[in-house]
Design goal:
The complex is a heterodimer of chains A (333) and B (672).
Chain A: H1 2-5, E1 28-31, H2 33-52, H3 55-80, E2 82-89, E3 92-93, E4 98-106, E5 110-117, E6 120-121, E7 125-127, E8 133-139, E9 145-148, E10 152-156, E11 163-169, E12 174-178, H4 189-193, E13 209-214, H5 226-230, E14 236-240, E15 249-251, H6 260-276, E16 281-285, E17 288-293, H7 296-307, H8 313-316
Parallel strand pairs in A: 3-12, 15-16
Antiparallel strand pairs in A: 1-11, 2-4, 4-8, 5-6, 5-7, 5-10, 9-12, 10-11, 13-14, 16-17
Chain B: H1 3-14, H2 20-34, H3 43-62, H4 69-86, H5 93-106, H6 114-132, H7 138-159, H8 165-189, E1 213-214, E2 228-234, E3 245-254, E4 259-261, E5 273-284, E6 291-292, E7 294-295, E8 297-298, E9 305-307, E10 313-315, E11 323-334, H9 340-343, H10 355-367, H11 371-384, E12 388-389, H12 400-408, E13 410-411, H13 413-426, E14 431-438, E15 441-443, E16 448-452, E17 456-464, E18 468-472, H14 475-478, H15 480-485, H16 487-490, H17 493-500, H18 509-531, H19 535-544, H20 552-579, H21 587-601, H22 612-622, H23 627-641, H24 647-660
Parallel strand pairs in B: 12-13
Antiparallel strand pairs in B: 1-4, 2-5, 2-16, 3-4, 3-7, 3-14, 5-11, 6-10, 8-11, 9-10, 14-17, 15-16, 17-18
The chains are: A alpha+beta (333), B alpha+beta (672).
């Protein structure tokens, strides 16, 4: 099947857009190798029938031949109603495979629809108008940045496996790829001025309890003092030493590594560490400063900044993928 | 989100062990394809297949490892050589089918991948066609369709393993029906050849019907055989029963016990002259021999056959498939003078043997002057001496004719014909035995005759100076009922009971015969119109369209026309299927979808996450000119769907609005 996936097709027009009904979608139909084998079987049967002068043989041969032809139409129509409705992809770290989840919709039930990119494929799907289906396409990543989804080939050999119908789907969907974390000690802004003090400047950040204050939206629920709440004192948040002072800024300039990518990988690891220890942290990069904060959303913002650092903003930030979270589908707006 | 699910499924589909469900269905297709062969195949081939299939299924079901590659190779070699050995190292159709079946018995054991399954199913299709080389009737045709239906359903199943088999069966049936018209056109137009591509295949079914010698038992053994020999359709009315002598083989050479076919009869030189012309067409069932049958004295040249000087017909090659031909015959005829090649052979007798009969004939020759008187004397002898027409004839090794005429006095038509011809030759009259069929059964529904093997008959021809070859049937004096009422009437009640009793059906038995006639009528039409369609009929069909099939241009035109028709047919389905609505979509949904499509045409797309109300807001903001219609559609849609005050009214209004909804490409200003 793989070699067939690479079959040259007619190039698609630039304005090609998936899912729009007023533009005809190109569907290609071509016999599979089984179709070719079956053709040989049919020719044998035809020769046999001609030699024996057997009309029933002719009838069977022509019946099977017509069956094959009619099945080509069915193969085409099976795929004709299917379209990719949207694509989403949860960010990954470089080196992990990006899983593009394509949601399929169909105007009538389509059987055994197969999705593939050059690097991987998904299981066959059944798509019906009243229930959409999703297929996950694994795409390997090596570098940080935005990994665009290559052209997806939707195909199906249904019903007989003698013909294959396929169509291309191009979306501007891309998967955000964070730098690959490179383990090491935390390096904050202060460390640059006092390199000798490097090590664990805020390692105590979450340990020394200093007091309570009133809950503000955005505070982590882990910090809420449920004991105080149960006593009817309202939502109080525990405060720890280190939060009072300057939050640590993981500093680009403080890193000894000379290489940009290594620096980013180190910073990425620090963000992960900072997030895991629930401290407040920020980033200092040549492109600017990410103000300290905490929580999942903050982590993502930091990682995204690292992922896109230094990349051309036009290509790095496609129109609808900028602030996209893992839960939204893009590609059809 | 279901990434974890994806991989095992993909494995199952694209490389892992096939499910045992799939294997069972592939075996089902094989069973259906092989079933008609089961009776023909040696019992050990059938057992071989069944055992191996059960084994394969067991292995798959238990998830056991199948036989080692070495074992499989050993089994293959054993199957092939065992088969060849047991078939005696000959090669014909039977052996071919046998070996193919042996290999297909093994195949399920080595099915591992999608590819194996596909190839096995192709072989199943191929096996279906081998059935047709043995049996061609309508019931086989229906079975063929059923077989293709099942095999195709399994083919769908292996390409979509998740779906239910029943729905695959339905789809398979639908595709089959859609393919049928195209298949019919191809069947009619595809160029046929006047003869085979490479030699005729070796007869393998064995000879049924008459053999090329007349000896005691050669005709009477056929009495129990109810198989159809041929069917005849007359252009006019059917001639009376005592005229229905179907000439097949002429036996000229007698060795004292047996009569042999005149193997070296030349082609017919001069045509016979006669009166009372009858035109008819015959559909001859395959019998594995070259002779074909004609009424009495046929005088036309049927297509595909050669007329011989003894007024029989010979096919170009053995009749291994149904053969349909038209003939004209004389019921009254003169064959002209005795020809050189028959002069001696039709008088010759072995020098010794059957002395009593010889003496009797020589006595007649002395007593009477004209051959006609001798014939009458012989017939009177057979009529007057209480001869019995019976299937139970005592075996006589020596002097069989003396034994029949003077001792046992029991015999069947071949005994009497043989004895009569012997008497004639002994009296000096040229004579010979003719084998064929007598009579036939009229099908009341179709007005045609069915001639069965049980109608086989033998009679005598004598040569008379003034009339040429003249038929004399000694059976007509021994048992006149045989001539007028057929075989069953000629037998003793016990014999009739033993041979012709119908299955016991109780009160339904009166429908039995009509049912058989009805089925035979359908089968006859099938034989005539479908199986009888050959090179010559195709030429006639081409001629009706003004094409000369013998020229390649005409054939090219026809092929082009078919290609065009096929393309049109494809287009027709293309459009029809495209139009077909989804089964699952309800009318409200369809209307709303139509509405969204119209909006999409002018560039407003609905995202999947937008509900109707949210979508309406967006449309209204981008195209204020459409707001009125959009509001109404949305309102109706929501009302039909969720509020249930008067859904009928809203649905009606929705239908009307959506049908008329044709949004202009660019906003129209000034409209409400």
């Amino acid at each position: 099947m793989d070699e067939l996936l690479k079959m040259p097709g007619i190039p698609l027009p630039a304005s090609f857009r998936f899912g729009s009904r007023n533009r005809a979608r190109r569907i290609y139909v071509f016999p599979t190798r089984y179709g070719a084998i079956f053709l040989v079987v049919l020719l044998t049967m035809l020769m046999g029938s001609a030699n024996y002068g057997n009309n029933m043989g002719f009838l069977l041969t022509f019946l099977l031949g017509s069956l094959v032809l009619v099945s080509a139409v069915h193969t085409h129509h099976n795929l004709a109603g299917v379209r990719v409705d949207g694509v989403r992809c949860a960010p990954v770290f470089a080196g992990q495979p990006a899983l593009f989840e394509c949601r399929l919709r169909a105007s009538r039930c389509a059987e055994a629809v197969h999705l593939a990119v050059s690097s991987g494929r998904a299981r066959d799907l059944r798509v019906c108008p009243d229930n959409s289906a999703s297929a996950s396409l694994p795409v390997p990543t090596r570098h940080r940045g935005r990994k665009p989804l290559e052209t997806v080939v939707l195909s199906s050999v249904y019903p007989f496996g003698l013909f294959r119908a396929w169509t291309h789907y191009r979306s501007d969907a891309a998967c955000l790829v964070y730098p690959k974390p490179l383990p090491g000690p935390l390096v904050t802004a202060g460390d640059a001025r006092d390199p000798g003090a490097g090590g664990k400047p805020s390692g105590t950040g979450a340990e020394d309890f200093t007091g309570m204050r009133g809950y503000q939206p955005g505070d982590s629920l882990h910090r809420v003092s449920w004991k105080a709440f149960s006593r009817g004192r309202g939502l109080m948040v525990k405060q720890f030493a280190g939060e009072e002072g300057i939050s640590p800024l993981f500093d680009w300039y403080a890193l000894p590594e000379p290489d940009v990518e290594t620096k980013l990988s180190r910073l990425c690891d620090m963000v992960q560490q900072g997030h895991r220890s629930r401290m407040k942290y920020g980033l200092r990069l040549p492109s600017g400063i990410v103000e300290p904060g905490r929580g999942e959303r903050h982590r993502r913002r930091c990682l995204e900044t690292l992922a896109l650092y230094g990349l051309d903003s036009a290509s790095a930030q496609p129109k609808n993928a900028g602030r996209q979270s893992a839960g939204e589908f893009s590609g059809r707006k | 989100m279901n990434a974890s699910l994806t991989d095992p499924f993909a494995k199952l589909l694209w490389g892992g062990r096939p499910g045992s469900r799939l294997l069972r269905q592939v075996i089902l297709a094989l069973v259906v394809a092989i079933a008609p062969h089961a009776g023909r195949l040696p019992i050990w081939v059938v057992a071989w297949c069944l055992l191996l299939w059960i084994w394969a299924d067991w292995v798959e079901r238990r998830g056991r490892a199948g036989p080692q590659p070495g074992t499989r190779i050993a089994l293959t070699v054993a199957g092939l050589f065992g088969g060849l050995f047991l078939y005696g190292f000959s090669f014909d159709l039977d052996v071919g089918v046998g070996l193919l079946t042996i290999m297909l018995g093994l195949k399920p054991l080595e099915i591992r991948t999608h590819r194996d399954r596909m190839i096995t199913l192709f072989l199943a299709y191929f096996l279906v066609i081998t059935n047709l080389l043995y049996n061609n009737d309508l019931f086989m045709a229906l079975y063929m369709f059923a077989s293709v239906l099942v095999t195709s359903a399994v083919l769908i199943q292996i390409n979509n393993p998740d779906g239910p088999f029943l729905s695959h069966l339905r789809l398979s049936g639908r595709i089959l029906l859609q393919a049928l018209p195209l298949a019919a056109i191809l069947f009619l137009v595809f160029p046929r050849l006047p003869s085979g591509l490479w030699g005729s295949p070796k007869a393998s079914t064995g000879t049924t019907g008459l053999s090329d010698e007349i000896r005691p038992g050669s005709v009477s053994r056929l009495v129990q055989n109810q198989e159809i020999a041929f069917r005849v359709e007359f252009d006019g009315s059917i001639p009376p029963a005592d005229r229905l002598y179907w000439r097949g083989i002429v036996f000229q050479d007698f060795d004292g016990k047996r009569w042999y076919r005149a193997s070296r009869a030349p082609r017919r030189g001069t045509d016979p002259t006669g009166a009372q012309t009858v035109s008819y067409s015959i559909i001859l069932e395959p019998h594995g021999q070259r002779w074909v049958f004609g009424l009495d004295i046929p005088f036309s040249d049927p297509i595909g056959s050669i007329p011989l000087a003894d007024h029989t017909l010979i096919r170009w090659r053995k009749v291994n498939a149904t053969y349909q031909y038209r003939l004209k015959s004389y019921l009254q005829y003169r064959t002209g003078p005795l020809q050189g090649w028959e002069r001696l052979r039709t008088r010759r007798l072995p020098p010794q043997g059957n002395p009593k009969s010889r003496a009797l004939a020589e006595q007649w020759a002395r007593d009477f002057s004209s051959p006609q008187e001798i014939i009458d004397a012989a017939l009177a002898f057979l009529a007057g001496n209480r001869f019995v027409y019976s299937l139970q004839v005592p075996e006589t090794k020596e002097e069989p004719i003396d034994a029949l005429l003077f001792d046992t006095r029991r015999g069947y038509c071949e005994h009497y014909a043989s004895a009569f011809a012997f008497l004639m030759r002994a009296a000096g009259i040229p004579s010979r035995v003719v084998g064929g069929y007598l009579g036939g059964e009229r099908n009341p529904y179709g007005d045609y005759l069915i001639v069965r093997q049980s109608d086989a008959h033998a009679w005598v021809e004598v040569w008379l100076e003034e009339r040429g070859w003249t038929r004399v049937d000694p059976t007509s004096v021994v048992m006149p009922a045989r001539i007028e009422q057929g075989t069953a009437a000629a037998l003793t009640p016990e014999e009739r009971e033993a041979l012709f009793s119908n299955p016991y059906l109780g009160p339904l038995s009166k429908y039995w015969k009509p049912l058989l006639f009805g089925l035979d009528l359908i089968n006859n039409r099938w034989q005539k119109w479908v199986l009888g369609y050959d090179y010559f009929r195709q030429r006639m069909l081409y001629n009706t369209f003004g094409l000369d099939a013998s020229r390649w241009k005409a054939v090219a035109w026809a092929v082009l026309a078919v290609a065009g028709l096929a393309a049109l047919y494809g287009l027709f389905f293309f459009l029809r299927i495209r139009k077909r609505k989804s089964v699952h979509e309800d009318p409200v949904q369809r209307l709303y979808r139509q509405f969204c499509r119209r909006l999409s045409d002018v560039g407003i797309e609905r995202s999947p996450h937008q509900g109707p109300v949210a979508f309406a807001k967006i449309v209204t903001s981008t195209r204020p000119d459409l707001s009125e219609t959009v509001r109404r559609v949305t309102q109706d849609y929501v009302a039909v769907r969720y509020a249930s005050k008067d859904p009928e009214y809203h649905l009606r209004r929705l239908k009307k609005t959506v049908r008329r909804f044709r949004p202009p490409k660019t906003p129209v200003h000034g409209s409400p």
